Amino acid sequence: MASLLPLLLLLALLDASRATNFEVGGDAEWVVPQAGDSQTYNHWASKNHFHVGDIVHFKYNVDSVMEVTEEEYNKCESSDPIFFSNNGNTEVRLDRPGPFYFISGATGHCQGGQRMVIKVTDKARPPSGPPSGAAPAGFGPAGAIVVLMAVLWPLLVMHDI
């Protein structure tokens, strides 16, 4: 049983290493877009490929982010959101395939275009690097193996596994 532990740790690290962190809007913060540009965040989302396990990061001041249903997204309001945060530095892990609907909880902001739909797929990531505006969340498979071996090697040798 003890010999399975290193393998399980390796698999967990490799799975986490495939996640990508996305800064919502690229370098821009989560704010009301300029007048006439109500699709800013949906344009940004459509240029990226989101997969289960990826993380979207919202940076903002005196605002909030809510994950809501499609109906609430279309109405730009929610009294009972799926998720709510107003800490100015919110990370949401995309934990399932399908659409995620986000709106600002600040009065009038959603109507001003501060809303976004992210479509998440569970398909394997293409062999190319992460999409533009994204930074790898992990070390990558090779880095994960190096870290894992550096941590586990002394234990394996010490216990003659």
From TrEMBL:
This protein's record includes keyword Cell membrane: no
Cellular component annotations (GO), alphabetically ordered: endomembrane system; plasma membrane; side of membrane
GO molecular function: electron transfer activity
Keywords for the protein's UniProt record, in alphabetical order: Disulfide bond, Glycoprotein, GPI-anchor, Lipoprotein, Membrane, Signal, Transmembrane, Transmembrane helix
CDD domains: OsENODL1_like
Entry's localization field: Endomembrane system; Membrane
Membrane topology: Lipid-anchor; GPI-anchor
Transmembrane segments: 137-157
Ranges of residues in domain Phytocyanin: 20-122
Source organism superkingdom: Eukaryota
PANTHER family, alphabetized: BLUE COPPER PROTEIN, PHYTOCYANIN DOMAIN-CONTAINING PROTEIN
Protein name in UniProt: Phytocyanin domain-containing protein
Source species: Triticum aestivum (Wheat)
